[in-house]
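Q: Could you fold this chain for me?
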Amino acid sequence: MIRNVVGSVLALAGATAAVWSPFRAWYDGRHGSDYPIGDLFTGITDDKADVLGSILLPFAFAALVTLVGVVLRSRLLVALAGVIVLGFTVLWMVRVGQAEGSLVVSGDGRGLGDGVANAFGGGVLLLLGALVMSGRPRTHRLPPAAPTHPTLDGPRPTGTPYGTGAPYGTDDPHGTGVPYGTEDPYGGETRSMPYAAPGRFDVPAEPPGDGTGRDDRPPG
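A: Sure. Below is the predicted structure, expressed as structure tokens.
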């Protein structure tokens, strides 16, 4: 948050300096607002431009981009505004150097003026503001968590139930590993429905015998 505030202040200060620079002297006392925007592409002439048709136009556009970037907290837009200001300032210097033969700096008002310094300073402040700003916070969307328990009305899971050795869908619910209708590997007899195993069903287990509670099987 603090970085966005500081970066926004730097960016707004740079945009203000860039917009104010055409109203200052740029070269030999000639203001930047006197240079037609078309002269930057065709060559510097002595023609005087209107304010809206001068070098002020790209700087005003850069200031608008800066405002949008500050509102949206977009580092890219603020940096783009700084590139626009510095780019047109350097282009102007190239054209003036071609027209004058050289660029000089003099303290008596001749040569490069403070308007160029304001434009350069504004572009640098815009780039610094873009570097200082932290931008908009990024939100990471996590994928939905998988359900930990199946729904009651969903399909019945397959596999081996807890505590048994037989999978679902077989005719051996007690986990003996031998389905009904096959021979018992231990006794060689064909298995049929056994009596209820204790703890497997809701009805109590029926002990073997004749129903009197006596076990008629031979000992051993």
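A (continued): Residues 164-192 form one domain.
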